[in-house]
Write a structure and sequence with these properties.
Number of strands: 39
Radius of gyration: 28 Å
Distance between the termini: 59 Å
Shape: globular
Amino acid sequence: MEFQAKWIRTSEETGGVCPVFRKGWKTERKVERATLYLTALGVYEAHLNGKRVGKYVLAPGWTAYDKRLQYQEYDITDLLREENELTVTLGKGWFRSPMPGWEDAPDKLQRMDRPGGILGEVHIVYMDGSEEVIGTDQSWTWGESGIRFSEIYDGEFCDDTFVTKEWNTVKEFAWSKEILIPQEGEEIREQEVVTAKSVFRTPAGEMVVDFGQEITGYVEFTVDAHAGDRIHILHGEVLDAERNFYNANYRSAKAEITYICSEGTQTWHPALTFFGFRYLLLDEFPGEATPEQFRGIAVYSDIRRTGEIQTSDPALNQLISNIFWGQRDNFLDVPTDCPQRDERMGWTGDAQVFSPTAMYLEDTYAFYAKYLYDMAKEQSVLGGKVPYVVPSCGVEDAACVWGDAACIIPWNLYLFYGDKSILEDQFVSMKSWVDYITKVDGDNHGWRYIFHFGDWLALDNPVQGAEQVMGATDEEFIANLYYAISAGIVAKAAGVLGYREEQEKYQKLSEEQFAVVQEEYYSATGRCCIKTQTALLLTLKYHLSKNEELTKRQLLKLFEQSNHKLKTGFVGTPLLNNVLTDNGMNDLAYELLLNEEFPGWLYEVKLGATTVWERWNSLLTDGTISGISMNSMNHYAYGSIQEWMFRHVAGINTMESHPGARTVQFAPTLNWDLRYAEAKYDSASGMYSIRWELSDKEHVTITMDVPFDCTAEAVLPMVAKSEKEAVAEVLGSEENGRYLLEPGHYEVSYQLSGWKEKTAVCVE
């Protein structure tokens, strides 16, 4: 669509006050249909004749604003009257808030000072066939709204006693219309409503509301008050060790709301911002609050759920819930790292490592595609470089693993959805990232020697401390290896697309770089010279050693030295359990999953987590917050463990040889501590489901469902020889340990063989 309307803004600076723009008109003829097209530099909320337009929260969403800006389309036919008034309230949003949170961002102040504004058109088609367009221009007026301040990090201040009395002429201004695009991503909407679990007094005497679940969104409260009564609320995600309110880990983000009451009973929630929180500190509130007065409204992108897992272990089920909440809380138009502190950025590394889990859990194709399109736009002005965060907000630095999201996420989308158009759309982006690395690498391995995050937040750095962030795995090794990995992905994408010349070029580059890694970091006998869990996991994953048995022994020795505890960070953890299972160490993978001591996933659960922590030691065993410089209780990266749970615990394993899940592998692994596990995955090709249950240590029942026009290969664990004939009667003939299943429902029970009593884990 081509907008004929003009960009409009306030005629003077309003400070922190959110302006409201107004336009009135009459519709004296009968209307067939009416459509509003609207966008903003900032975030907006529109009302027509006093009724909210649409359900989109924080519209128009977050994109690389200088390069791409979404507009929304609303059917407003039923809202029209003979006398009409359209109002649009504008907040700073991501456009003018001080994004990102670190102080030295190069254009931070410039972005905060640039003007916000709106652009919109109402298209009316009358019953007589005539049409009318009402666009933003100088005929509109603006005034101050009751929202006296609104910003992403610091929150919102609303005065419900304020009445707009002065209306001023707007100012037209120049901003590109060439960057406008129709809505691409999923709309941000209000989702679950979480009722307050309790209101209590802390040992410090504070009045605190607990929702029992960390969410992203805002609180809605109902209060009976007098005009002018003041409410002041702070948000937090955890209590301190003494059970007092705590939000020092939000750093500079004030995360507060202030509300000036009108007379009588009233219900209110913020309109143009969001928070990450579980607890509220009622710093000022009329009377003694009750739980019934508070509702937590979860706000995130409206993405359809596709995957579910359930087990017999309540703690593990809580972890599964934590992972899904972490995804929802951080999938707010952009895959963010966290939703609460002065950051909330689209960190590429976090998005990359979590993407397979995300694709099992939700239909994320459109969500990720929008993110990747923004990534490509950022690259287009950075010479192929992928910034740490997308949208970049002025950040221009790049690093391995993080920037490799440009190759890994599109490839994962292709594997999960079977749609090669994402590779067509992103191929230039994928290729330009690898070309950028090649340019930096030069003839002297220059790519190794810039800053890289490496195995971020791993626990094996010999220099320990609450604020330690770097792992022990050589960052140069990781950088060179991921250079080879991404080049290989570009080659595979080129093969899918039929680009033979590029396929050969990048395959050769990938092989050369793998050879460089092998020559540099491996002995003549195949021994990896980097003795960390992550380095050995990477070695097995990418077959870097000619002596994999030696590598496995090295890895097991490291786990023996760590008392079977993980020490991996952002690079190693997403690979950890998949690599262990793929290499015959499934008993260790289960042991790591079910460990309730530090460090581990269930350690967090035992300390009351309702989302996934940023650090393994975000809280110490006594509930003490380990550090505040970088410590979020709602980061999803380590939730990547759920990919392994889908693939190997429940056993719905997507296959690279069959993109789009037209065929999956049912390959469950059994564990007596679980007794049963079940999963559903509504793939791009249909709904697969599986359940296994141990009636005792010698018998299992497995049910499997294969959707129409799909197939599955079943690899059943530990079928006793005496049972194979009976199993074949149900599943058909076996070939190389696999049963080929046509569409339908299958249920098979059989006796087990090969149980390892020492670890109480079944292995093949």
